[in-house]
Design goal:
By secondary structure, this protein is of the alpha+beta class. The protein contains four helices and five strands; from the N terminus they run E-H-H-E-E-E-H-E-H. The protein has helices at about 10-25, 35-45, 95-110, 125-135; strands at about 1-5, 50-60, 60-75, 75-90, 115-120. The protein has a five-stranded mixed β-sheet, sandwiched between helices. A hairpin with a 2-residue loop joins strand 3 and strand 4. The longest helix has 15 residues, at about 95-110.
Length: about 150
């Protein structure tokens, strides 16, 4: 049975294993442990403008994570929800965890009165995009970053 629930302090070790997997998926292999301490602290701070995190759990084992944050938007007075990170352990993919976590973020956004949810993904994340094309509408926007 798959459930999605809020990240709790006791989830630190399992969360870090999943988040290391997510970081590696996008080519970030050398994050110092202090990085994970900071991120986990932000996810569990609990303030209204802090990041939030959920875990997908199957058979009492976390198999996926999602992080999101509500923020202001000039075009939408109610604000918007940015789904920043979504990851399912490779061995657990195809079991509906990704869809369940996105739906849980949608539900949290609806409960907060913030119906607009958006996220970014790598163009070559074909497996993820197959899901995203079923649960969302692709934006026509192209992202640019300030040069380093």
């Amino acid at each position: 049975m798959l459930t999605v629930r809020a990240i709790e302090a006791a989830d630190r070790a399992e969360w870090q294993t999943l988040y290391r997997g997510y970081q590696a998926f996008y080519g970030f292999h050398d994050r110092p442990d202090g990085f994970y301490d900071t991120v986990f602290g932000r996810l569990t701070a609990g303030g209204p403008s802090d990041f939030r995190g959920l875990l997908a759990v199957a058979d009492d084992r976390p198999i996926g994570l999602v992080h999101y944050v509500f923020h202001p938007n000039l075009w939408r007075p109610e604000g918007v929800c940015y789904l920043q990170d979504l990851f399912t352990d490779a061995e657990a993919r195809g079991q509906g965890a990704g869809r369940a976590m996105i739906q849980a973020v949608y539900a949290a956004a609806d409960a907060a009165g913030v119906p607009s949810v958006y996220w970014l993904t790598a163009e070559d994340n074909y497996a993820g995009r197959l899901l995203y094309d079923r649960v969302a509408v692709k934006s026509p926007f192209i992202r640019y970053n300030r040069p380093a």
